[in-house]
Design brief:
9 strands; PRX5-like; Glutathione-dependent peroxiredoxin; 5 helices; oxidoreductase; Glutaredoxin; Redoxin
Length: 158
């Protein structure tokens, strides 16, 4: 079942790329006691994600943080090496690139999608949420396009 507004984000151990290589991080450590914008994409380096979704958050990162947001997190069902490389390629220095390598987070959130028919495997749906102290305050899920989960939409909700 899809996570709902008012529910706590599950505590899952994922990875980020550090200078030493992949590093484990728990979602509770990233979310508790903070106001966070978290958005998810179906795949790093894919056209919509690389040309529209992530770039919007890169461009608006300072404005989003000026609205009291402590962190901006991008998650995808990719490994930490891919997420780290994608973040560098997109100049996403202000965004935590969170690797959900085996779709554990996407599934725990009820926001996984099975794209096996097109040979992509299980991926995350495209969405964005505002989270306060680990609790979902807003949730926008896109079936197509990037209207509900764009940086501009998130900014309008802050």
């Amino acid at each position: 079942m899809t996570i709902q507004i008012g529910e706590k984000v599950p505590n899952i151990t994922l990875q980020v790329m550090s200078e030493k290589g992949p590093e484990a991080v728990n979602t509770d450590d990233l979310l508790l006691g903070k106001k966070v914008v978290l958005f998810a994409v179906p795949g790093a380096f894919t056209p919509g994600c690389s040309m529209t979704h992530l770039p919007g958050f890169v461009v608006h990162a300072d404005t989003i943080k000026a609205k009291g947001v402590d962190a901006i997190i991008c998650t995808s069902v990719n490994d930490a090496f891919v997420m780290g490389a994608w973040g560098k390629a997109q100049n996403a220095d202000e965004i935590i690139m969170l690797a959900d390598g085996v779709a554990e987070f996407a599934q725990a959130m009820g926001l996984a999608q099975d794209l096996t028919a097109v040979k992509f495997g299980v991926r995350s749906q495209r969405y964005a949420m505002i989270i306060e102290n680990g609790i979902v305050k807003t949730l926008g899920i896109d079936a197509k396009g990037v209207d509900q989960s764009s940086a501009e939409t998130v900014l309008s909700l802050l």
